[in-house]
Fold this protein.
Amino acid sequence: MSTLTEKIREAVQKVLAEGLAEVVLGYTQGSLPYRNRVTAVNTPEETSKLIWPSFGVLNPANVLHKLKGKKVALISPGCVSRAVVVLCQEGQVKRDEVYLLGVPCPGMLDPSKVRDLGKKILRVEDDFKEKVLVVTSEGEKIVAREELLRQNCLECRHPTPPVYDELLEGEARKPSPSPYQKVEEIEAREVSARWQWFQEAVVSRCIRCYACRNACPLCYCPTCFVDDSRPQWVGKTRDPVDTALYHLVRAYHLAGRCVDCGSCEAACPMDIPLRLLTKKLEKEALSAFSFESGLDPEAPLLLTTFREEDPEDFMITQELKALGKI
Amino acid sequence: MYYILKREDLRPWLEAINREYTLFVPRTRDGFGPYEGELYLEGKTRLSAKEFFLPWREPLLVYEARPGALPKVVEGPVEKRVVFGVRPCDARGVILIEKVFSPDPFWQKRREATSLIGLVCEEPGTECFCWAMGVNPFSGEGLDLVLVPHEEVYLVKVITEAGKKLLSLSRAEEGGEEAFLSREKEFKAKFPVSPALEKLREKDLMTIYEAPFWEELALPCLNCGACTFLCPTCYCFDVQDEVVGSEGVRVRLPEACMFELYSRHASGHNPRRSPMARFRNRFMHKFKYFLDEYGEPLCVGCGRCNEECPANINLWDIVRAMSEV
């Protein structure tokens, strides 16, 4: 058993016994050796089902809306902590209603990379440091962890949670030195080639199941724009124009908010590289405003903030002052 | 009638079919497409063969968007087409959907225009359980021909006259009955029907409906449409009016019972408002309502839901809970 799993169970027992939370969200073993499932634990006896996962690809902060009114603790690697921070900043969750049990994250494995290692995957043993043993129907393979990590974990800048109530001991991955390499590969192409990539890799493959939206911890609009019927902003079939509109608006709505937990991409049943869209906007927020989301619950939000000295020509405060009007 | 087709004769056969008909094949793991050489035979496709009968956009009516204008019914697709490589689970899905859709003229036209050539799997996929849902892949149900990969050949069973005509375009030779039947017998002995189905038939509907397990099992569910859209038996649909300028088209498209909008009434009231209620409805429909109505579960055991569910919801957790409550 991984020592992190032991530490988590011990910490969760304490959290429940001391009444720091009524329910704890974490991960349990899934139905396949390369899948884990989000689960809720309500009593100390149930903690034995919790594990530190290799394949914790969905962000459990996404389940918070189902537990409204309860104090919830979350097993929080960097991206879970950051998603909760954004939810706090946006007034969706009160900071004192959640308990963040921080975990320095060694990165999660990509289920599809492991699935593709053999016809049938029988067992996966992860040392959470360097190596993964994968037992397949054809034999055993030892693979370097780095080769099996999820792309967003390879590009993660905050494996250690920036905000927490308690931080478990452990060794996190080093923050990625080149988080935008994949984005830059697309950026380097001609406009028409980028449009073609968007059409082929994203639009033509999408079946409009909205798994990406529903998996996102920050997509919480009571009525999503695609579900509005008066007026109806966007058609509901897989028409490329409608599908493109959905993906563009979804991505833009996450500008300056997305914490790159990768849930959208992991949730997609068609393996669409959805993160590249949100990652591009993350890069824009960083380069234009030196802004990274989800680091401080007290900090102002990127897109709802302004300063009087902002250079845009619609900021007329300075002008009015010069005229003596304010 | 049984035939033997050498594996190396498969491609020339497909080419021959493609010269006379529009041929669709599994092109990649994603799904089917027109035959252009690409052929994916390693396992089932992500999108099932139901897409041929319940397409993502089925125009029903066209109309001029002005008061008093009368709509015109769309004629629907009539082009003859052949689909090769349909897995027996998917073919069975078509039969189950037909129990509901048989009076629908658009469904009928698509069925009449389409021949299906089935392909039995070399071995069950990771999440496959067709047998547990009572599917016999060797039966050829819903198909015109069924092929069984066997050593260096395909064993072929002819199901319909249309199938026989298609096979006449190949170099297949008569024979292989014994091998086919023994493979079928072997399969049936090894893979039994799930005892859960019998239990579900006997269970009282309200006992399952009101059972306490639903909240817990539904907790991780995202209420997205991945399972319903990939499922070869989910047939729920939406009807939309698409109006551009003065031209209107009324289209039918797949819809998912997992969506809040699916059950929301015009008044704003939603009888299945909670995510749990929608989750419960999907499984009640498949394993109780449909079972009670038609005598069979609305599931063919293809396992796509289990494989692709983002939240790793496993159908068996629910079926077990429902049958043992």
About this structure: The first helix of chain A runs from residue 3 to 17. Strands of chain A lie at 23-29, 36-41, 72-76, 98-102, 121-126, 131-136, 139-144, 166-167.
